[in-house]
Fold:
Amino acid sequence: MSRNSQDSSGNLTEQLQSITNISTDASNVERLNRWTSAFGMIRERPVIGWGPGTYQFVYAPFQKPAYKTIITTNMGDGGNAHSEYIGPCAETGFIGLGTVLLLVVLILYYGFITYIRSNNPTNKILVLYTTLALVTYFVHGVLNNFLDTDKLALPFWSAYALIVYMNVCLDKKQEK
Structure:
C-alpha cells in the first residue's frame, strides 16, 4: 500500500482527466483490453458464447498488444470483462445478453408498476428508491461489473427480491 501512488482528488477536473486518460492510466487501458478481448470472443462465438464463468480462462488469446498493461495477465487467474452486459454476451452469447436485458426490463417494469399502483406512501418510497438504486447500477454496469462479488451481489438480488415481493403483496391485497 505504501508504494501506491494513486491519489484521490476532490477536484472534479482532475477526476475527469483521470477517468478519460486512456494513454497512460493502466487501469483504464486494461479496461479497454478486457472489452476488446470480450468483443473478440463474441465475434468468434456470438450465439452461445464460451460458457458461463469462462471469460477469465478464455480471453487471453483475444488480447491486443496495444492494450496490454502491467496488470495484464495470461494466466486465467482472475478478471472479468468489466461490463455487466459485455461479459455475459462473451460468456453466453446473445442468448445470455438477451436474458440480462430481459431481467433489466422486467425489474424496471415491475418496479415502476408497483410504485404507481401502491397506495401506501411508505411502500411507494421503498419501491421507488429500490428501483432507482437498480437504475444507477444498470447504468454503472455499462462500464464495470461487480455481481461476481458477494459484497454487491447480495444487495443487488435483494433489491430484485424486494420489488417482486412488494408487487406480489400488492396483487394479493388488490385481489381481496
